[in-house]
Design a protein that fits this description.
CATH class of the largest domain: Alpha Beta
Largest sheet: 4 strands, mixed
CATH architecture of the largest domain: 3-Layer(aba) Sandwich
Strand content: 15-25%
Order of helices and strands: HEEHHEHHEEEH
CATH topology of the largest domain: Glutaredoxin
Shape: elongated
Length: about 160
Amino acid sequence: MKRYILILFLLVNLNGDNKIDLWSIDLNQSLKKTEDSISNTLPEQKETLKFENDYDIAQKRAKEENKYIFLLVTEKYCSWCKKLKEEVLTEPNIIGILNSSFIPIEVDKINGYYPSNLGIQGTPSIFILNPDNNKSIKSITGYRDQNELLDILNSVKK
C-alpha cells in the first residue's frame, strides 16, 4: 500500500498540475466528488428536545423568557413514559413548539424535585405551569398521542 501511495505522489509531483495522465483523472475533481458523496450520505441533523434538569433553573428561565414550564413527570420502569418520549416527544412539530414556547423539564416521580402541590396521580404526567406561582394551567395524566399533545400545547402556549 505504501508503495502505491509513493508512486501516486511521484506522478502528481512530476507532472506538477495535479493530474495523473496515466489514468486521465483530475485529482481535484475526484476529491470534490468524494467530499460531495460523503456529505450527501451524512444524516440530517434533527432538532431535539432540550429538557432542563433542575426545576429551580427551569422556573428562573421561564420567568426570564416569559414562558410556561412544561413539566414531564416519569418513572424509570414506566412503559407508557418511554412510549411518550420515543413516539410523541420526537415529533418535529412538538419539539418546535416546546423549544420555542415552553421550558421543558423532565423529573423522576420518586427522586425528582418538583412542586408538591401538583398531586401526581400516575405516570406519565404532564403539567403546564405558571412560573410565577407554580400553579398548574393544564395537567395531563397518562399517555397522549401526537395530535392530542399538539392540540394541548397550541391551546396554552404564550
